[in-house]
Amino acid sequence: MTETNLQEIISLVSDVYHVQQEHVLTKCRIQPLPEARAVICYIASRYTNETQETIAKAIGMKRANVSIQRDKIGDWRPTYSELDDKITRVEEYLDRPNLEPLFIMAAVLGGYED
After folding, report:
1. pLDDT higher than 50, residue 112
2. Is residue 55 part of a domain?
3. Is 80 within the bounds of a domain?
4. What is the pTM (predicted TM-score) of this model?
5. What is the mean pLDDT of the chain?
6. Collapsing DSSP states into helix, strand and coil, what is residue 34?
7. Does position 11 have pLDDT exceeding 60, yes or no?
8. Burial grade of 55 (CB within 10 A; 0-12, 13-18, 19 or more)
9. Which of 31, 41, 72, 85 has a CA-to-CA distance to 59 between 20 and 30 Å?
10. What totals of helices (H) and strands (E) does the chain contain, helices first?
C-alpha cells in the first residue's frame, strides 16, 4: 500500500462520484454528496493515520460523524454492489504499486530513458 494523504482520497472519491471537490466539502445533503463524504470517511480511516478530528475538519464534518459514516459505509458495502464498486475503484488506485522509485533507479543505472 502506498502512502496516502487525505487530499488524494478526497480527489479520487470526487472523481468516482463525478462531483467537484468544492461541493463534497460543503454541508449540502443532495445526493451523491453525502454518500461521497461518507466514503471519504470510510477510506480515510482505512488508508491514512489521520485522526477522526483531522478527517472531520478536512470535509467539514463533526468528529463524531466520521465514525458514524465510516461504520455505516462498512455495513452497507457488502449489501450495495454499486457502492462497493465505487469504493473498490478508489481502493484499487490506492493499492497500486508505487513504480516511481523503480523508474528513478532504472534511469540512474541507465536502463530507462525518458
Report:
1. no
2. yes
3. yes
4. 0.81
5. 86
6. helix
7. yes
8. buried
9. 85
10. 7, 0
